[in-house]
TrEMBL record:
Gene3D superfamilies, per database record: E3 ubiquitin-protein ligase SopA (2.160.20.80)
Organism phylogeny: Bacteria, Bacillati, Bacillota, Bacilli, Bacillales
Identification of the protein by name: Quinolone resistance protein
Tree of life domain: Bacteria
InterPro entries in the cross-refs: 5peptide_repeat, PA_immunity-related
Length: 211
């Protein structure tokens, strides 16, 4: 599946994330932010456009109602960040930690999570369209009541992830692994799985498979 990559200018100014406090409209755009720390803060309705963010720490920060478009996060720590009620489009997360990140009631499109950690991430009641999770850990992630369209989990860990009240029709998990997964049989219809996973689901249903 092809997704739209972030549209980022080749000419970016260098800024610190704390500069956002001095912007009247709480916006960072056409810039590169490197080695910035912005932890345990609370700031509403931030806007990030056409920006590269590297080696930054945002743990335990409240970014609710954030608008992120055309941004690349690389080697960042966004653990326990609150991205609820947000709009996130054409964004890449590379080699980043998003443990326990809260992305509930949000809209996500054309996003790639690559070699990142999203264990315990919460996507409840969000709309995800054209999303690629590649080489990413999503153990105990929560996708309750989500709308998934054109979503792929490529070589991911999905152990104990929950897809309650979320249809997996058209979703590809065939290259990923898990010991247990929470999903109803009705919501599993149309999901792309491997032969081994089909056996796992049959076992979870209580079926006894004879040689």
């Amino acid at each position: 599946m092809k997704i739209d990559k972030p549209k980022i200018s080749t000419e970016l100014t260098s800024r610190n994330f704390t500069d956002i406090f001095y912007d009247e409209d709480l916006t960072l755009e056409m810039c590169e932010v490197v080695n910035s720390t912005f932890e345990n803060e609370s700031i509403d309705k931030v806007r990030l456009y056409n920006t590269v963010i590297k080696n930054c720490k945002f743990t335990n920060t409240n970014f609710s109602n954030i608008d992120i478009t055309d941004v690349c996060f690389e080697n960042c720590d966004l653990s326990n960040v609150n991205f609820s009620n947000s709009s996130i489009h054409r964004v890449e997360f590379k080699n980043s930690k998003l443990i326990g990140v809260n992305i509930i009631e949000s809209r996500l499109g054309n996003i790639k999570f690559e070699t990142s950690i999203l264990n315990l991430a919460v996507f409840e009641q969000s709309k995800l369209e054209k999303i690629i999770f590649k080489g990413t850990s999503l153990n105990s992630a929560d996708f309750f009541d989500c709308n998934l369209k054109k979503v792929e989990f490529m070589i991911c860990s999905l152990d104990e992830a929950s897809f309650e009240q979320t249809s997996l029709n058209g979703v590809d998990i065939s290259s990923s692994n898990f010991d247990s997964l929470t999903v109803s049989m009705n919501d599993l219809k149309g999901c792309k799985v491997s032969p081994h996973q089909a056996t796992q689901f049959a076992t979870l249903m209580g079926l006894i498979i004879k040689d």
